[in-house]
Design goal:
Helices cover about 45% and strands about 15% of the residues. With about 375 residues, it is α/β, with parallel strands linked by helices. The protein folds into three domains: about 55 residues, no CATH class; about 220 residues, Rossmann fold (3-Layer(aba) Sandwich); about 40 residues, no CATH class. The protein has an eight-stranded mixed beta sheet, with helices on both faces. It starts with a helix and ends in a 41-residue tail after the last helix.
Length: about 375
């Protein structure tokens, strides 16, 4: 919109031009038209950006607990209750579960639960790990289980700098715990959903972490970019325009979104996508449900592609979000334990379970519906 003072000036110029015979009227009209066009070119994109960001913030602010995977440790669980602090000083609660093989400890696994759950879900995901003789340190993220919440901060389904700080505190604590007992301080991380992203974020520049297993992992920036693309086709009045925004538009939208979220929520949401490329040669095992309608398979495929060390991607046939352990518990345990035996075990068994990942062509996936950069990669969708 033009300022009223500008309009008055233009009218004065036009009046003066008319009296002097100078073509000021034509010039003024041309200037007005040019200003109107420039205004439209600036205002319309700003309105669209604001709309996209507003919708995206609404999704970022949702809270999606998965209560079915929480609960309390059974009374017969051999565990040691501990208290420790996150990297930013927040008080947290955890528990150390001893391996159940009856032999010497083979290594320590730090378990990171999903949003809305608590540390007791480790007994669901890590039972094969405990049975194989590994110890497991499970803890409650802030605002979950026995860990108090932080005033002014509400946990969301996206890994933030707070969950990263919790994860770093857990790794530091268990390192001291192991050192005091004369044991090697190397650990593996096992994270589920939001806990998976938190594990990857925390492992950067922490050489104590020797191996990482992640179940249903995703990066906030790439999943939000995917969702914004979908919203564009739903809400845009000119669909063909929304479907053909150049890549830089989506990148700018994500940048704008996370800046606004940092201001609105008082926390940052680091990129898991960027972090996994900084893990160096450390091995990563990625697990994802074939029927996951919440986090598309392509999210794990993207992280697999960016990992630089030994890497494995297992697509669990028929499994929904976080349900690989439920649908294929024996195969889940075989793969996770085999991965730990290969990359963490302090005491190698006489006959280590063979970890095999068959080379197959990728099964049909919805990769075509995502950004072109998220190309499919060979995955193992077998059960044997």
């Amino acid at each position: 919109m033009l300022h009223s003072g500008m309009i008055s000036s233009y009218l004065a110029i036009m009046a003066g031009g008319s009296r002097s015979g100078t073509p000021w009227l034509s010039i003024a009209i041309a200037v007005l038209i040019a200003c109107g066009v420039v205004g439209l070119l600036l205002i319309y994109p700003a309105i669209i950006l604001r709309k996209y960001v507003r919708i995206s913030i609404g999704l970022m602010d949702e809270y999606a607990p998965v209560a079915e995977n929480g609960g309390h440790e059974p009374a017969n669980a051999v565990a040691e209750e501990v208290a420790f602090r996150a990297a930013d000083g927040h008080q947290l609660a955890g528990v150390v579960h001893e391996g159940r093989s009856g032999g010497p400890a083979r290594g320590m696994v730090v378990f990171a639960h999903e949003v809305g759950s608590d540390r007791s879900s480790c007994l669901r995901y890590c039972k094969p790990v405990l049975d194989a003789g590994y110890d497991v340190f499970a803890f409650d993220f802030r605002g979950h289980g026995a860990s108090p919440g932080e005033p002014g901060y509400r946990p969301r389904q996206w890994p933030s700098d707070r969950e990263k700080a919790d994860m770093l505190g857990a790794i530091a604590y268990i390192g001291t715990y192991l050192k005091e007992r004369g044991r090697p301080t190397d650990v593996a991380l096992h994270g589920v959903s939001r806990g998976a992203g938190s594990a990857i974020l925390a492992a950067v520049n922490v050489p104590q972490v020797k191996a990482i297993t992640v179940d249903s992992a995703y990066s906030s920036d790439t999943i939000l970019e995917y969702l914004m693309r979908r919203w564009a086709t739903i809400f845009a009045r000119i669909r063909i325009v929304a479907q053909n925004h150049p890549p830089m538009v989506w990148r700018f939208l994500c940048w704008l979104l996370f800046r606004e979220c940092a201001r609105k929520f008082g926390c940052r949401f680091p990129s898991v996508r960027k972090a996994i490329g900084k893990l160096g040669r450390r091995p990563v095992l990625l697990i994802h449900g074939e029927k996951d309608s919440y986090i598309p398979i392509v999210q794990s495929q993207l992280l697999y592609d960016l990992a630089r060390g030994p890497k494995y991607l297992w697509i669990v046939p028929g499994a929904k979000h976080n349900q690989g352990i439920t649908l294929s518990p024996q195969e889940y345990g075989r793969r996770v334990v085999g991965f730990l035996d290969e990359h963490l075990a302090v005491v190698q068994p006489s006959r280590s379970p063979q970890l095999t990942f068959e080379s197959e062509q990728p099964a049909a996936t919805p990769a075509h519906a995502f950004a072109p950069a998220y190309a499919s990669v060979p995955v193992d969708s077998s059960n044997g």
